[in-house]
Amino acid sequence: MNPYQVMGGIACCTLIFAGVVTFLTVQGVPLLMAFLGVYLLAIWIMMGMQRRARQLFEENSGVKYQRRHDREVLLHTDIETRAIDPDAPFSTRGHFQA
Q: Structural domain boundaries of the chain?
C-alpha cells in the first residue's frame, strides 16, 4: 500500500473513534467510560478478525502445503532428468550489476 493510503486509513479510523466517543459523551456517558468502551470494542473486533484469519489460513494451509510439495517434487524430478552441459557459457548479465 501507498504510505498516503496508510496514513489516510489511520486518519479515518481516528476520526470515527473520536466521533463515536463524542457521540457517547453527548448522550451522557462519562468520557472515560466512553473512551474505554469504544477502545475495548475495537480491540475485541480486531481479535475476532485475527482469529477468523487464522482459522481460514489453517483450513487452506493443507492445500497450499500440498501444492508446494507437488511443485518441489516436480522441480527435483525435472532437474534430475535434465542433461547439464558443463561447457555451456554462464551469463551473469542482469543478476549482479553494480
A: 3-81
